[in-house]
Amino acid sequence: MTTSLVTTTPGRDTYDVVVIGAGPAGLAATAMAAGAGLSTLLVDENAGPGGQVWRAIASTPVKAPEQLGADYWAGADLVAEVQASGAEIVHRATVWSLDRQLEIGVSVGGMSSFIKARRVILATGALERPFPIPGWTLPGVMTAGAAQTMLKSSGLVPDGRTVIAGQGPLLWLLAAQILRLGGRIDRILDTTERRNYLAALPHVLDFVTSPYFAKGLAMMREVKARVPVTTGVSELAAAGEGQLASVSYVAGGRRETIPVDLLLLHQGVVPNVNLAMAAGIEHRWDDRQLCWSPLLDADGNTSVAGIAIAGDGAGIGGATVAVARGRIAARAAIEALAPAATAKLAAENVLRTALAQAERGRSFLDVLFRPAPQFRIPSGDTIVCRCEEVSAKDILDAVAIGATGPNQLKAYRRTGMGPCQGRLCGLTVTQLMAQARGKSPQDIGYYRLRAPVKPITLAELAAMPQTEADVKAVVRG
Amino acid sequence: MFKRIDQDNRPRVQILVDGAALEARQGDTVSSALLASGRDVRRATAVSGAPRLPYCMMGVCFDCLVTIDGVGNRQGCLVPVADGMQIEIQKGKREIGR
Amino acid sequence: MTRLADAIIVGGGIHGCSTALHMCLAGMKPVLIEKDYAGRHASGVNAGGVRQLARHVAEIPLSIRSMEIWARIEQLVDDDCSFESHGQVLVAENAAELENCRARVAELNALGFTHEELIDAAELRRLVPAVAETCPGGVVSRRDGAANPAQTTTAFRRKAAALGATVREGIAASNVRQHDGLWQVDVGADTYAAPVLVNAAGAWAGRIAASLGEPVPVETVAPMLMITSRVQHFIDPVVILRGRKLSFKQFANGTVLIGGGHLAVPDQDRNETMLDWRSLAVSARTVFELFPVMRAAMITRAWAGIEARTRDDLPVLGPSARHKGLYHQFGFSMHGFQLGPAAGAVMTELIVNGGTQTRIGDLGIDRFHSSQPQR
Q1: Chains that touch A (3 or more CB pairs under 8 A)
Q2: How many domains does chain A have?
Q3: Whole-structure pTM over 0.90, yes or no?
Q4: CB-based contact (8 Å) between B4 and chain C?
C-alpha cells in the first residue's frame, strides 16, 4: 500500500474511480478502490474527512473519547485506511456538475476544471429533513445537525436558553453530547406521534436485537435525567422580531410559550439528491422514509451507466450501512475495471451479510420517527422556500391558477430557484402540492435539478478551459 | 448563543469582521467563528432584507452567505478561517458578487 | 371512444396554446394534446425575449403583428405574463459590425419597416450604461422587451381552457391518421376526431410531418441558458450582440439571464438535454468582457429546452401542401416565443377564413418541396 496524496487540486484529468464525498460510504469506497490499485480520487467539500457523522474526526478539539462517543471514533480506522490506500484526496472541492459521460465539474479555491472518471461513486450523504414551522427562518433557529457540527468541529455548545425540538436518534445523541460538554438545554420537545409507537410494534423484535436499541435507551436515560422532556408535541412555532425570542407548542392539548435564545430542530435526515438528480439518475418517492431515493441495483448502480450511489444518498441507513454500501459499490467498480484485483477483496457475500446486519432495526426507526404531517406540510404564512421567501399560502395560490407540479411552480413563485436549489424546500413543495391536488408525491414529482448544483461565479466559469474550436481558432491565428 | 468548551486548546487565529478584529480558533469555519463571537452577525436577505443566521452549518441552506476577502456570497460554513481574513456581513444590498 | 372536436392541436407550447385560444375566440371548440404539460419544453424554458429586432425579413410582418398583441397581452389572457417593454438593443462591438447595422436598418427602411433604429455610442451608453466602453453603437427596437415564458404559455393554456378548449396533458398523441375526411388522433384509450389538425409539436413536429408524407429538413436543438443570483439593478433593455452569440437580460427581481444560442446535446426520447459547459464558458467569457460589472455574479442554474430548427432558420406556418385540413406551425428555430401570440391568430384565420392579412407567404411548407431554388 502507498501513502495517499492529500492535494489542493486533482493531479490528473482522468481517474478509474472518482468518489464524491468523504463520509463513511465515500471513505470505505475509496479505501477499497485505491487499495485494489485503481487510480482513485476522493473529492469532498469539507476541510477534512468524516462527512457529517464523523465530522472533524482528524481535528476536533473534543479529545476525551467518551464525550463524542464510540460511534464517532469508529471512523478513525477508516480514515487511517484511506490515508494508506494510495488514493488522491482533495478537500474543499465542490463538485458542481456530473453528466452521463462521467465528466465532473469541480471547483477548488475558486478555480474550476473538468475531470473524467471510468466509474463514479456518489457518497453525498444526507441532509436534515426540512422542518417548516412558523418562524423557522428566524436567527436563533438552527438544525440540530448544525449544533452538532459546531460541537464536533469547534467545541461550541449552547449556553443561552436552549430548546431542542423534534424527534429521532440524532436528537438524543446531540442532547447527550451537549450535556457531556457542559452546554445548556432547557427543554426537549418530542414531536414523535403517539400512534407511531403502535405502528412500529411489528418491527420491534428486529430493533431490540440491533445495536441501536441498547445505545439509544442508554442515551435517552442519560438525557432525561438532566433535561425536562415534553412528549406528544403536536404544534410548534418560533417567534420573535428579527431574532428568536420564544417557542410556543401544544402538548396534550395544552399550549405553552417559553422564552428561548436558541431552538434546534430535527426530524430525521433525507438523501441529498441534488448532484444525483442533476446527473439524470432516476429516483422514486419512498413512502416509508418520505423522501426521494435513487433506483439502485444490489451493487448501488444507478440508472446512469457508470455511476453508483453509496451511503445515505442511497436511502437513509446510517453510518454502518453506509460503510457496507461503500464497500459493495467499490467492489463492483473493481470487478468491472480490474477483475483480477477482486481475488484479494472480501467476498461479495461477506459484504452483503455485513450490510444486512447493519440494516437491522432501521425499519423500526423509520416507522417510529415518521414525522407528523403538520411538521412536513405547513400552511398559511409559514415560509416554505427560505431562499425566495415563499409561503405555503403563496404555493397554494399558484396551484389554484394552474401550477400542477414543482417545475411549473417555479415560473410563478421562483421556489427552488434560489442558491439552495430546492434542498430546503423541495420535499415540502412536493408534499404540499400533492396534498393540495389529491395526488401522490410520485405523481407530483420533484424539481428538475440542473448543474451547477452549487453556484459558481461568472468569472470562474469564464476562466474554464476553452473549447477545442476556440483553441484551434487561436492556433490558426 | 454558544460558548467554547474549556478543553479547546487550538491555536488562535485573528480575523476581521466588518473591520473589527475577532479571535477565532484554527479549524473554525467562518460561520462557527461568527456565531461563537456573540456579536450581531445577522445578514439580510437579498429578497426582503429579512435577518438571517446560519441554519444548517453543512453547506446546504445558504443562509450563512458572507463576503470573504472581497468575494461575496461565499458559504461561510464551508470556509475555514485564516489569519487576517476579512469578513463582511452581507446586508442584502444585492451588490454584484456581494 | 371517439370524441368529436372542431380541431385537434398537437403540442402544448406557446404556439399550440395560442392557436387553441384564438380558435376559442373564433367560436371553435378545439382539443389540445400535450404529451407532458403545457410549456414543458422550449416554450416554458426559453429566454422570454419579445423581440422584433434582428429578425429575418420573411417573418417581420408576423413579428410586428405579434408585438401588437403583446402590448395588450393581459387583456387577452388575463395575466400580465410578466411582460416588460424596455426595448431590445443589438450591440455592435466594432466599426465593421456597426456598418452592418447601418446597412441592415437601411434595408428595413427601404422595405417600409421602421421598428429598428440605428444608435451611436452615446445613445448605446444611455440605454446600456454598463456595456464595455469600446462598443461604437448598435440598433434598438424600442417596443421590444421580455416576458416570463412559462407564465405566458400557462396563461394561454388556462385562458383557452376557460373558453372551452379541451386540454389533454400527460399522454402523447399517437396514431395520427385521416379517416372519412376527419383527422383522428389517439390519446391513451381515447380517440379524437376533427376536420382540422394543427401540427404544433415543436421538436416532435418534424416526425409528425414526415409521417404524413411531408418531411421537412428539421433538426432538434437545445439552446442553453443560465441565470445568476439576484444582483443590483443595472440594465433595463435586453441586449443581443451582432457578432457573437449572446443575449442578456436582467429581470425585475435582480437575476440576470444569459443566453444566445449555444447548444446543449438534446436527448429527445428521454426528454432531456446534456449541457455543454465548455460552450457556456464561452458565454461567460463574452459577458465577462462586455459587462465587467458582472464578473463576480453567481451562476445558480443552467438549462436548455428542446425545440426544432429548420434548414433555413424560418418557421413552417400554414396549410399542408398535401392534405386538406392539415396545418403546420413549427420549426421556429430558437426564436418562436415572441411570434406565438400572432401565429395562433394567423393560424385561426387560415382555418376559419381560408386566408390572412398578415404576410406569411415565405413560411409555407412547400418551400422545401417545390422545384424552385431554395434560399
Answers
A1: B, C
A2: 3
A3: yes
A4: no
- The boundaries of the domain holding residue A252 are 130-267
* A155 in a structural domain: yes
The domains found in chain C, sorted by start residue, are 2-65+149-217+311-368 (3.50.50.60), 88-142+223-304 (3.30.9.10)
Task: Indicate whether A78 and A206 sit together in one domain.
Answer: no
The answer to whether residues A119 and A134 belong to one domain is no
**B71 and chain C in contact, CB less than 8 A:** yes
Contacts B4 to A, Cβ<8 Å: 154-156
Q: Are residues A381 and A399 in the same domain?
A: yes
Task: For residue A84, tell me if it sits in a domain.
Answer: yes
pLDDT for the residue numbered C373: 47
Chain B residues with CB-CB distance to A under 8 A? 1-10, 25, 27-29, 32-33, 35-36, 42, 45, 47-48, 50-63, 65, 71, 73, 77-80, 97
Taking 90 as the threshold, does the pLDDT of residue C192 lie above it? yes
Chain A residues lying within 8 Å of C150, measured CB to CB: 408, 410-411
Q: Which of C230, C293, C295 sits opposite B94 (nearest CB)?
A: C230
Of B46, B93, B97, nearest to C297 by CB-CB distance is B97
How far is the CA of C143 from the CAs of C102, C137, C253, in angstroms? 19, 18, 21
Positive or negative torsion for Cα A127, A133, A134, A135: negative
Domain co-membership, A103 together with A198:
no
Q: B88, B96, B98: best mutation site toward chain C, by most C Cβ within 10 Å?
A: B96
Read off the C-alpha cell for A183: 452546554
Q: If pLDDT is split at 50, 70 and 90, which confidence band does C374 have? A: very low
Q: Does A206 touch chain B (CB under 8 A)?
A: no
Long-range contacts, stretch A209-213, CB < 8 angstroms, 24+ apart: A209/A360, A209/A361, A210/A360, A210/A361, A210/A364, A211/A361, A212/A169, A212/A361, A212/A364, A212/A365, A213/A361
CA distance B71 to chain A (A): 10
Contact (CB, 8 A) for C24 and C165: yes
Cα separations in angstroms, A54 against A93, A291, C170: 18, 24, 45
Domains of chain B are 12-88 (3.10.20.440)
Please determine, for residue A471, whether its predicted confidence score (pLDDT) is greater than 80: no
Same domain for A247 and A150? yes
Runs of H (alpha helix) within A319-445: 319-337, 348-359, 362-368, 373-376, 392-400, 406-413, 426-437, 441-444
Q: Are residues A421 and A382 in the same domain?
A: yes
First-to-last C-alpha distance (Å) of chain B: 26
Contact C284 A414 (CB under 8 A): no
ipTM: 0.96
Query: Which residue of B12, B62, B69, B91 is the best one to mutate when testing the A interface, meaning the one whose CB has the most A CBs within 10 A?
Result: B62
Does the pLDDT value for residue C71 go beyond 90? yes
Q: What is the pLDDT of residue A470?
A: 52
Chain C: touching chains (3 or more CB pairs < 8 Å): A, B
* Omega within 30 of 0 (cis) for the link into C223: no
d(CA A348, CA A325): 11
A105 and A148 inside one domain: no
pLDDT at A473 over 80: no
Rg (alpha carbons) of chain C, rounded to whole number? 21
Segment A195-227, tens digit of pLDDT: 999 999 999 988 888 888 888 899 999 999 999
**Mean pLDDT, chain C, whole residue set:** 95
Question: In this model, does residue B98 exceed pLDDT 80?
Answer: no
Grid coordinates representing B68? Answer: 470573504
Q: Do both A248 and A136 map to the same domain?
A: yes
Is residue A372 situated within a structural domain?
Answer: no
Q: Is position A410 within any domain?
A: yes
* Percentage with pLDDT > 70 across chain C: 98
User: Do the chains contact at C301 and A421, CB–CB below 8 Å?
Assistant: yes
Q: B97, C296: Cβ pair inside 8 Å? A: yes
* C98-113: pLDDT as tens digits: 999 999 999 999 999 9
pLDDT for residue C371 is more than 90:
no
CB-based contact, C230 to chain B, within 8 Å: yes
Nine-digit cell string for A306: 457508470
